[in-house]
């Protein structure tokens, strides 16, 4: 532990820059080079600079360079040459923005209206023009404008893509032939910024000069790559010309606005913003985050040796924003710094200090996904990080940053998917608490403030949660349905005695009290890893099938609950009432006659999910049996979800019978049911 902390602090104290040699050359020497700055002139007209098509005249061998708008067709030398060619334009923009009068700045702000983010644009121009703490203000401006620009370009992509889809559809029907330019209205915006900038949709509307300039500034890892440098925490506010690059990006946003004003397209409709409300409903941030006070983190930042001195001002500003109630701005500043700090720890744990730098073209960047999940690298690295950070802190970081169905706050912020003004106190405090817990790892006198953490968003935790929700939905339904359930006779002798009584009771003697006992037991097991079904020596991942099945059972149970509530709430709802029409009475009678079958199908469908949630591993000896079970159970669950809408009880009974038969065959194929190690695993 002491050795790792020593290596971590040594990297933080002795590393002057986290940019590799080639990236330094591009960003610090060629992008906004001093030679280009000396050639810059204030006499250059703003309107001429806004016309980005003029940039193509700066390129050497222009025809050759413009032949490949696709970044995959270019090498490092291509980017190096083109950045040198464009450097005088960038220097002119920087010089012009630095001396631009207020009226002209307001004109540029109006041209950014196409982005549909007026608060962010106002804030960015305000940060750019402040006279105090210029570098730190422009660092924040760069964070905000790169995310906002990606979001806005995604909106443009959607408009053009839908337009192409509509034209394709019309021409196909009118002229009875298919166009070579196809569009699919269901297609989503590319998840990677570089893929968005390489799309034909943006090329069609923005033109080659504008697209190439965007790719030079923000695109491939071989380019200046400004967005990734700042959002992945590779640069601090003293490491580069933040004012210059922030000026260029804001100017480019205005130039795109002027270009779009001259295009004959309908108004750009912004996409719906992402929120974190769905991740907070029914869940609370861990209790230990409530005990974190801002003063504790200020002390940790000020005294720690695990942070470069040049980065501490960013942390302190983030804490200040939290205290002032600017929670979104606090989170935006904190996340790159959290990633940077975790990267230093990763390099110390694995004794690879060179990985703290930006990568060259042949090596992957050491980003948050690699640090916490290790990507395709050695899985033992994940174990080392978890051992150093502590299992509770490690799981909390995975939950908030990495898990696919979790909030993924870094991704949401860096891609501009959420509005800063919607971020609440809880998320900001949780990030600050995580930050304090990380920094305290470098302080031997501090005790970890992140004890056991029960994850909410691991595949196992989500599976457990859906199973519990399903059992609760069944209880509501069967509590209203007045019917004697025909208890299935199933041989569970191959199952271990530790879990047999509870499962057997739930299967053979179902009642609301037994159902609740099972739910209570599963809630205690909610962080256990889910096993795959083992077929001979092969593993068959069934979690996706089971999760889909459970969501359909919940839907069907909710509809049947509503059906019985309506039926039982009325005095005329009994079958003996002549106020019901004959057709209604026969429908209710059919439902009741099949109820035993439906209950048995539901119980058998959930038997294996319950078994693996209790820590078991089921081994069967016949792969086709599993395939048949997946097909029949899925069909049964889909029909169960919709049968109450159209009263197709006979069809549902047939599906239920097939599902029961498949499950009984599968149960007969069980070789052994093994209770796994009782140790809680993520």
Structure description:
With 682 residues, the chain is mostly helical. A 4-stranded mixed sheet has the order 2-1-3-4. The longest helix has 42 residues, at 134-175. The chain is globular and about 85 Å long. The two termini are 23 Å apart. 62% of the residues lie in helices and 2% in strands.
Largest sheet: 4 strands, mixed
Chain-averaged pLDDT: 80
Structural class: mainly alpha
The proportion of residues forming helix, as a percent range, comes to 55-70%
> How are the strands of the largest sheet arranged?
2-1-3-4
- Alpha carbon gyration radius: 30 Å
> Number of helical runs?
30
Shape: globular
Q: Can you count the beta strands?
A: 4
Distance between the termini: 23 Å
Low-confidence stretches: 169-185, 375-380, 571-579, 677-682
What keywords describe this structure?
30 helices, mainly alpha, 682 residues, single chain, four-stranded mixed β-sheet, disordered C terminus, 4 strands
What is the gist of this entry?
This protein is mostly helical and 682 residues long. 62% of the residues lie in helices and 2% in strands. It contains 30 helices and 4 strands.
